[in-house]
Amino acid sequence: MKVVYLDNNATTRMADEVREAMLPYLTDLYGNPSSMHTFGGQVHRSIETSREQVASLINAEPDEIIFTSCGTESDNTALMSALLSRPDKRHIITTRVEHPAVLNFCKAMGRRGYRVTYLSVNKLGRLDLDELDEALDDDTAIVSVMHANNESGVIFPIRNIAERARSRGVPFHTDAVQTAGKIPVDVSDLNCDMMSLSGHKMHAAKGVAALYIRRGTRFAPYIIGGHQEKGRRGGTENVASIAGFGTASELARNHVASGDDAVRQLRDRLQQGLLDTCPGALVNGDPLNRIPNTLNISFEYVEGEAILLRLNEYNICASSGSACTSGSLEPSHVLRSMGVPFTAIHGSVRFSLSRYTGEDEIEFVLEKMPPVIRDLRELSPYVKEI
Amino acid sequence: MIYLDHNATTPVLPEVATAMAHCLRHTFGNPSSSHAWGQKAKKAVDEAREQVGELIHARPDEIFFTSGGTEANNMAILGTAARFSRGHIISSSIEHPSVLNPLKHLGDQGRRITCLPVNQYGIVEPRLLERHLGSDTILITVMHANNETGSLQPIAELGTIARSRGVLFHCDAAQSVGKVPVNVQRLNVDLLTIVPHKFYGPKGTGALYVRRGTELKPILFGASHERGLRPGTENVCALVGFGKAAAIAKRDMKSRVTEMRKLSTLLYKELMREIPGLKLNGHPRKRLPNTLNLSFPGVTGSALLDNLKGTIAASTGSACHAGRHTPSPVLKAMGLSDEEALSAVRLSLGTGTGESQIRLAVKAIAGACRSL
What we know:
Strand order of the largest sheet of chain B: 2-8-7-6-5-3-4
Helix content of chain A: 40-55%
CATH superfamily of the largest domain in chain A: Type I PLP-dependent aspartate aminotransferase-like (Major domain)
CATH architecture of the largest domain in chain B: 3-Layer(aba) Sandwich
Largest interface: A-B, 70 and 66 residues
Number of domains of chain A: 2
Largest sheet of chain B: 7 strands, mixed
CATH architecture of the largest domain in chain A: 3-Layer(aba) Sandwich
Shape of chain A: globular
CATH topology of the largest domain in chain B: Aspartate Aminotransferase, domain 2
Distance between the termini of chain B: 20 Å
CATH class of the largest domain in chain A: Alpha Beta
Helix content of chain B: 40-55%
Low-confidence stretches of chain A: none
Oligomer: heterodimer
Distance between the termini of chain A: 34 Å
Mean pLDDT of chain B: 95
Structural class of chain A: alpha/beta
Order of helices and strands of chain B: EHHEHEHEHEHEHEEHEEHEEEHHEH
Largest sheet of chain A: 7 strands, mixed
């Protein structure tokens, strides 16, 4: 049976062009980029090409990009670098709805004596920027706010946030793992000092990611060893995956530049269809400021996990909450922060599309969902008249 | 072109590349996802963990995947140091930068670090460890095989000493796993670094063996991957390649060791015959079977390799800074003069190296030596 993959915020299917770009580095071009001989030189050049491609996706300079092993490492590196570069400053500002890579880093720093302000969101998942202004003080070392939330898809006003931080002389980091390749991401427009990107969220391989560091930003490396990445990240480069990441960046840039709106149209079709056919369905997150591929929707009085199990029988892949917290029965920290009512929070499902999602896949989901919800409601001890 | 730089990195074996290419096409799920695609990816990661565990005689739950050897070494050293607000660390003077630089970082923070010297063969003497162990020592980290000379350290003996004193023992086995048998039970280690791109697996992945019951603090913070010790979505297809390379290494270990020893002996003997005054750096026997570090009289290693450009790919141990060569710290630690150290070249063989290539290499190297 065909698989309907609507979990692209967890990870994406690799693009054919990306796989083709990787294969030579798994066979003939096996040199170590640090080697002085020809085997190394060729491989070294491919890394620099990828660096240009990744830079170009976000309108950065190639020397502002370092390659890392994952989004988590990029986030940790950015934040730790800010703390190490200004050891006198002991305050971090972030939000309640960040990815665990930022949240758990901040919690760990909290245990080491740092003060952390977690900005809250309203029921649409929006931030209150006055709260940011109040939190900013002379002790603040870094502000880190994600570009778009992985669960709700809500886009934060990064340029505005960055300006408020920078006008107080505080560096600003954004985790753009969920936006790069989906909407325009331009570091000079967004005015950020550091930005995290991840390959596997944009049809490249897992195990490769990048950190943008604006020229002139004070930087301290995290993984230390050899002189790779100009001394900014030790370790033999993941050559094949980096080559694929470069190709994926170029594909993503072309996709965004084309203005192709098909993903948004399909997502909107899915949203409207579910609202029309499933009573007691509520969309979570700001309908106006949302990445075009994401639909987070709750079905009152039903368990999200039960919906997913039923969908799995039809080979439909979606998720409740994020992949990184799946398996936990706690409701999503993002939806809790948004104050989603308890009758709905357990019944949330995230559908996340990609530019490879087809109309037939959306129609298939729209056909299967109403009976699934109806059946589960009949079993629910909590169900009321809806 | 003859590739004699297998200690820098190795080609990916065709079987490994095939397994990875298949994974890239068919297994794209996130192992943390509960749906079928996620579970398929998780199964692939679990299988790789078993294969890597088997290669070093560890249990699968003692294998923690990282992004490579550097991160694994950082994790072992910084993750142990994070457990103790103070405490002395012992290492050796011939470690890889991914061990030395975290130690330097800890030294800068005020920790006492001891780097044990090596003897003329590049080997740490166990009695020196005993002499330097203090009541405040929290960690010992010594590499298994040196990357430049191939000299094998007496890890089992060092491990016995560490254990008798209750001190954690980490071993960077980046250069030995897959080339010689590595058994974590016999070596008496608590932590051990494994790097697949040194044994015909992919770059961008590695592992740290953590003996059951050994406490370690994570150095990266995020979601709960790798049982809370190493967050970040798993590099699934690279891990599939890692597992495959480990399984093949286990299967072929005996023949690999025999073949490498035979070929490196042939290379050494033939070069000795052609080049008077040639000197082997490192232990004549207690050495990786694939590695020859040789000082060529009267020439510098870098000039020799320049002359062989396009014919032989090998390396000197020296780092080149702005066109000026500095002698290898490893060879200097063994007591070589600057001149001897600068004349050194490392030839490291691999499973793709054949006897005819060895004979061609001898001819080319001897010719280059004469012309210089």
